């Protein structure tokens, strides 16, 4: 297991072997993380959720559900000092990734052609190196 810097893990959370948690991630109470699964930097897992797929950086999962993200961790980004422009750019990238009806390969191609920022590059690199697949989006 690999846990990054300044990670918060609440009571009852279970992390299986070889799981990876990025810096400043927040794992809420009673969350379940399957082995070989990754949680990206500044991601937030809402209470009682379970994942067997990777949670991309900067995203937030849906409470009491499995393998779903519901948006960006905007509060965590703001508290971490990301400015409005950076947050807006990540929101645009999230829309391309999850709400544009593109498959992952097409979305990555579009993200890499339209954005040059370090944050979007980090998101793309996380996605490219995913072996278990990504959590899906549900409103």
UniProtKB/TrEMBL annotation:
Descriptive protein name: Acyl-(Acyl-carrier-protein)--UDP-N-acetylglucosamine O-acyltransferase
Lineage of producing organism: Bacteria, Bacillati, Cyanobacteriota, Cyanophyceae, Oscillatoriophycideae
Keyword set, alphabetical order: Acyltransferase, Lipid A biosynthesis, Lipid biosynthesis, Lipid metabolism, Transferase
Domain of life: Bacteria
Single GO cellular component term: membrane
Domain UDP N-acetylglucosamine O-acyltransferase C-terminal: 54-135
Gene3D superfamilies membership: Hexapeptide repeat proteins, Udp N-acetylglucosamine O-acyltransferase, C-terminal domain
Enzyme Commission code: 2.3.1.129
Primary enzyme class: transferase
GO biological process per UniProt: lipid A biosynthetic process
Keyword Iron-sulfur assigned: no
Annotated GO MF terms: acyl-[acyl-carrier-protein]-UDP-N-acetylglucosamine O-acyltransferase activity; structural constituent of carboxysome shell
């Amino acid at each position: 297991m690999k846990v990054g810097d300044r990670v918060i893990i609440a009571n009852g959370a279970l992390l299986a072997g070889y799981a990876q948690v990025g810096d400043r991630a927040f794992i809420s109470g009673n969350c379940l993380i399957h082995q070989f699964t990754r949680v990206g930097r500044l991601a937030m897992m809402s209470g009682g959720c379970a994942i067997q797929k990777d949670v991309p950086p900067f995203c937030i999962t849906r409470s009491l559900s499995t393998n779903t993200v519901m948006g960006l961790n905007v509060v965590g980004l703001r508290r971490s000092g990301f400015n409005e422009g950076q947050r807006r750019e990540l929101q645009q990238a999230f829309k391309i990734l999850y709400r544009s009806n593109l498959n992952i390969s097409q979305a990555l191609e579009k993200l890499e052609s339209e954005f040059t920022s370090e944050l979007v590059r980090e998101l793309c690199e996380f996605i490219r190196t995913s072996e278990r697949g990504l959590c899906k989006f549900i409103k």
